[in-house]
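Throughout our pipeline, every protein is held as a single compact record rather than as scattered files. Nothing more is needed to write down the fold, since each code stands for a local backbone conformation. The record that follows is passed on verbatim for readers who wish to inspect the format.
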Amino acid sequence: MSALLSLRGVWVEYGDKVVLEKVDLDVEAGSFVSIVGPSGAGKSSFLRVILGQEVPTRGSILLDGVPLAPECGPDRGVVFQRYSVFPHLTALRNVVFGLECEKAPLAARLFGSARRAAEEEAAAMLKAVGLGDSLHLYPAQMSGGMQQRLAIAQALLKRPRILLLDEPFGALDPGIRADMHALIRQLWSDYALTIIMVTHDIREAFSLGTRVLALDKRRHDPHAPHRYGATAVYDLQLDRKDRKPLGITVDNKGNKLEAAL
């Protein structure tokens, strides 16, 4: 596999506070990278500079060898921990809205054949994430897992090269979380995604990832804790051939148990 994303000498600073320092990484196409580390280690800042929400203070980020555009683009999708959906829109309208935004400012709404095509595309994506029977439900009528499936459908609609996940399953109950693990693995395979996921759950990081990166500070100064930033202190490549596939274990009565590693 080739390097899809390259970070070279990336620093993120807010005034005199250093959050990330000298991050040098290559992310291969098709990989699933789990990011772990203590609170305040710059994990979310790491995602934001890749997404384009922030520009690194120093260094460069390349996508396919080309400098990353300094704004969010369709080549990158993101799913946050809290369900980033519009409460006043149905599931179908939530996903169609992404296609309408693509046409703005020339048109605020889609009409006629263009609207029918958009709704068919959105419905197909909702079916792919397990919401094929929930097109006309509003977020308030959905469980947390369903809302997160909707957020994933929104993120995947434009077929991004990279899917960024910022603790997407942290607010879910264990059983629903296991279902979401199986879903994201299936979507990763079906859509040939490259995924970068931040998580505080070490088990989740190793269960889902083909690679685990630990962000932390290499150096500490108790008199000036803001002086040094975090970088990748561990970089573990995982051989998934030696591990059982992630899925849902059931007992002889069909009751769900925990996800298998």
User: Anything to note?
Assistant: Residues 83-159 form one domain. The first strand starts at residue 3 and ends at 14. Residues 113 and 119 are 10 Å apart (CA to CA). The chain has two domains: 1-75+160-261, 83-159.
